[in-house]
């Protein structure tokens, strides 16, 4: 069987390349950028172009031809491939009677031992690199046992409104627009609310959030918390940012502070790259059977990490978030939510009360958040004036493009939702739904957008009526908050 070859593009990531980059960046006068009279967009674009140009120069894109098998198996070195090919030669020689079969078998057995040793060495190195990251850990295990990964990117046909698209550019554009319009389409389908969302908020909090000046050490800490293996939209590995952290942290701190002072988030940091992932079930030609994986610029994530730390500190010090919310909060987990839920059930059983639990599922809740209502809720909780101006800028005019193989779509703007794949998105969503506990009188347990309520009593008929009453209150809150109930996935238990 002829060997299959494939040409791949790569960037050399050797120590000599890294040293060249640090030397080049160390000699760059970033003050020319940070001390100019330009606005934050112009300054950040100059910084980004300087960093990318330096990386392109010291880590240039190259091409090499490798076997398809070697591309799939990272442990298969050039030297090992020579030994494998030698085994194939001996196999055919033994089959034709040119050499005794025992020579082939002895060689094969010795090679198997070498391969197992190389595999073990390769995967041990991979496990050390992931440093306890469970998601990456399982990905490596699946690779080791040859489990086929979910199909990415390759979409040969897309069907929308009975029209089929087979051109890659058309598929990329149509699927990207589908993802961009999800929030708007759901919002358009919702019935108007008879109640204002403000009715559930009560009096505004007297507390007020202010940004603290960002230091170089804040930025360096954010950089060093990045995962090594990830790359941003420019395909610069996070390890490169970590390598140069001491060099780029001071100019970035300067740019971040200007962004805060201007109340303007750099436009280029608002653009995400989407990769469509098949959900593993349903018609592959339907857009609804794909979910987008969003990749944002790494510098934006560094900036968000610094802001996230300041924002969560304010929320925690002032006890703003509901104690019934267990999602996306340090010191809280799904285990805590389940434990609290079961403790209440056991208490009711001990008191010989009947309990009804309703599990509420929301349709694409993160994608449907209206920015105007979120801004009003931020203001209610003390995020006002210049801080609110910055968050409004962070949320506005966001967009994304979608990439399938080597084909990129146009950029589509997103008018609803919190940014997917972002650091601030989840905490902003928690702020948005924080008043959920005020819309009903049931006991609730929340993990982000997953919600459960409990009602208990000794009279079953009265209990059903009381539960339905709570559900009506929750439905009204959902309407006021422009969130959609997923009735098909919402269930109740008695």
UniProtKB/TrEMBL annotation:
Q: Name one Pfam family in it.
A: RVT_1
Ranges of residues in domain Reverse transcriptase: 258-494
Indicate the segments annotated as coiled coil, or none if absent. none
List the signal peptide residues. Answer: none
Source domain of life is Eukaryota
Instruction: Read off the InterPro entries from this record.
Output: DNA/RNA_pol_sf, RT_dom
* PANTHER family assigned to the protein according to its UniProt record, in alphabetical order: REVERSE TRANSCRIPTASES
* Name of protein: Reverse transcriptase domain-containing protein
Q: Which organism is it from?
A: Rotaria magnacalcarata
């Amino acid at each position: 069987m002829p060997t299959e070859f494939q040409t791949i593009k790569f960037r050399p990531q050797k120590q000599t390349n890294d040293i060249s980059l640090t030397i080049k960046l160390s000699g760059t006068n970033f003050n020319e950028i940070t001390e100019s009279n330009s606005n934050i967009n112009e300054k950040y674009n100059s910084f980004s172009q300087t960093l990318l140009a330096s990386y392109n120069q010291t880590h240039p894109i190259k091409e090499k031809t490798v076997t398809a098998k070697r591309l799939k198996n990272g442990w298969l070195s050039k030297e090992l491939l020579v030994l494998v090919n030698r085994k194939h030669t001996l196999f055919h020689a033994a089959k034709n009677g040119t050499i005794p079969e025992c020579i082939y078998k002895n060689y094969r057995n010795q090679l198997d031992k070498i391969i197992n040793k190389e595999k073990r060495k390769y995967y041990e190195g991979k496990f050390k690199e992931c440093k306890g990251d469970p998601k990456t850990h399982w990905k490596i295990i699946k690779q080791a046992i040859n489990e086929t990964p979910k199909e990415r990117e390759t979409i040969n046909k897309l069907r929308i409104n009975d029209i089929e698209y087979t051109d890659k550019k058309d598929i990329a554009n149509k699927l990207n627009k589908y993802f961009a319009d999800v929030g708007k389409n759901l919002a358009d389908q919702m019935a108007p609310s008879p109640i204002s969302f403000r009715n559930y908020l009560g009096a505004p909090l007297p507390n007020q959030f202010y940004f603290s000046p960002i230091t170089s050490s804040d930025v360096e800490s954010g950089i060093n918390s990045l995962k090594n293996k990830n790359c941003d939209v420019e395909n610069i590995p996070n390890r490169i940012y970590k390598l140069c952290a001491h060099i780029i942290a001071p100019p970035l701190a300067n740019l971040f502070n200007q962004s805060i002072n201007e109340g303007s988030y750099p436009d280029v940091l608002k653009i995400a790259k989407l990769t469509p992932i098949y959900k593993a079930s349903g018609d592959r030609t339907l857009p609804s059977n794909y979910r987008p994986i969003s990749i944002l610029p790494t510098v934006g994530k560094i900036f968000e990490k610094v802001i996230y730390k300041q924002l969560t500190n304010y929320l925690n010090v002032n006890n703003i978030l509901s104690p019934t919310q267990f999602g996306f909060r340090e010191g809280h987990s799904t285990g805590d939510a389940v434990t609290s839920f079961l403790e209440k059930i056991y208490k009711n059983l001990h008191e010989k009360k009947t309990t009804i639990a309703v599990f509420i599922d929301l349709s694409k809740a993160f994608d449907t958040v209206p920015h105007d209502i979120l801004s009003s809720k931020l203001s209610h909780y003390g995020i006002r004036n210049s801080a609110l101006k910055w968050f409004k800028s962070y949320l506005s005019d966001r967009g994304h493009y979608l990439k399938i193989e080597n084909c990129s779509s146009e950029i589509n703007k997103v008018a609803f939702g919190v940014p997917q794949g972002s650091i601030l998105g989840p905490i902003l969503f928690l702020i948005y739904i924080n008043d959920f506990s005020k819309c009903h009188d049931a006991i609730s347990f929340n993990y982000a957008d997953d919600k459960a309520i409990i009602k208990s009593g000794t009279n079953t008929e009265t209990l059903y009526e009381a539960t339905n009453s709570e559900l009506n209150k929750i439905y009204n809150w959902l309407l006021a908050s422009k969130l959609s109930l997923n009735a098909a996935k919402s269930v109740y238990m008695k």
